[in-house]
Structure formats: structure tokens, C-alpha cells
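Sample pair:
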Amino acid sequence: LVCEIRDRGVITDPMVGRQPPPPNASGGHGLWLVHQVCDRVELNSDENGTVVRLYMSLGSADGGRGREEAAR
């Protein structure tokens, strides 16, 4: 699954979302959470805005096990 989010905001910190926000922070929780649950996060930001792509493997119907193991 790939999800792409765009907005006009600009993010200048290349490491944003890689560390949990301080307990008293009023923002910054969304990108940190995304980094926790997604397999890959790409963030590109410039004067035109920000694009964030989120990648998540959905796995297979057998929970990621091979057919032989699922049949057991």
C-alpha cells in the first residue's frame, strides 16, 4: 500500500518524525506515529510544499506464511 499526502507547508528538519516528540509538545505526533507503523516513509519538502509517501506491506492472506506452512 502506498499513500501520498501533499500540502503547501514546508518542513525544514530532515529528521522530523524520527524521534518521539517531547511529552508537552502540541504537534509532531503524526509524523512520529507514521514512522512507527509504516515500512518506509519518504518526505520531500521545498518552497512549493511538502510531499510525504507512506509505504506499508499488507502481507498475504496467510499472515505472511508460505502456502506449505499455512496448509499445516
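The beta strands are 2-7, 40-46, 49-55.
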